[in-house]
Amino acid sequence: EVQLVESGGGLVQPGGSLRLSCAASGFTFSSSAMSWVRQAPGKGLEWVSSIYSYISNTDYADSVKGRFTISTDNARNTLFLQMNSLKSEDTAVYYCNAEVSKRYYWGKGTLVTVSS
Known about the structure:
Layout: E1 3-7, E2 10-12, E3 18-25, E4 33-39, E5 45-52, E6 57-60, E7 68-73, E8 78-83, E9 92-100, E10 103-106, E11 110-114
């Protein structure tokens, strides 16, 4: 059974940093495309970033490029999102997403609130 469990969200001031984690199990993590997707209050889903460990490739939405960094620890089956220079518009629930055998799986999300 595929399981994705996010953690690391919380309240942070503008300009601050947070590191999100996603613990994965039930599939071959190192050969799967992994992504972060967020949903701001009252808005739709927004893709944030993806990583393709098997080809050492990453991709970012323009809104987070240069501020966020996606990475993995394949030995621990864990996905990370380092978020720096946070803005109020980054406030959202952040979801971990895995593409496994052409199916998509989601975690339950972790809330990030950027506010002074």
